[in-house]
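TL;DR need structure tokens for one chain.
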Amino acid sequence: MRAIVINEFGGPENLTLVDIPQPSPGKNEVLIEVKAISINPVDIKTRSGKGLAGRLKEHLPLVLGWDVSGIVREVGEGVTKFKQGDAVFGMVNFPGLGATYAQYVVAPEEHLAIKPSSITHEEAAGATLALLTAWQALVTNAGVKSGQKVLIHSAAGGVGHYAVQIAKYLGAYVIGTSSAENKAFVLGLGADEHIDYRSQRFEEIVKDADVVLDSMGGENAFRSLAAVKKGGTVISLPSGLQEGLKEKAEEAGVNAYHILVASNGKDMEKLAELLEKGIIKSHVSKTFSFEDIQSAHRHIETGKTKGKIVVVL
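>> reply
TL;DR here they are.
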């Protein structure tokens, strides 16, 4: 089968199209014929030697990727949720070896859900790692409730554009930051208010948020402490918590912590319902061919991706 492999960590040019043996599903696993995969910032960081590279270096030469949408072609022993021919989607084995940059992927059945018939494989592939991250941050960890105020940074990005929709679904008042050119997009997702991060300092406008979702880290995470009310929460998505952030948060009477998304089929099933009903929608801004995956990585590296980038097979 065709797969994209990296022999060593480095630039996008290290992504190489090769032929490797097709895997077989083990117990409680299914074999998926891949129709679309999604590219995330963690893919770029890991490929370059950061992100999850430390966990995965023993697998070099390595097939990257965690997001997948496709068709079940074979089921392993003990599989009860899926059968041959089912269209499925999910985030596979994160933060371990997902190996979704391939024609065929083996995945544990508990990491997958049936793909809603109302959405494409491209939209489904987008709605995996990024959507799960937003869901687990706002629902599982922060427990956002109706009437709360939620500030979402990078609201036009992969995680951000889903987070706006989830927060609105939960009944929150949502403020999103992005560049001015993405203002209409962010408000169109359901945000009640928009802040242009280039011309406005968000902490001078928002001082009483219940929850801040920060996907940028660094100085942005520290500034976010000033935008939260006492007892509020800042959730930081970049790897690890910035040194000194927890102490500063404690001084301000604010909770601050880092989360790492985890594969979860039950969460995927709930999100599949919301996607089916159109309550949550994937915005796929650009698709690339499998052969042009290097360009997909370069596009993410610009840091200006609106919604999701998807690769089709």
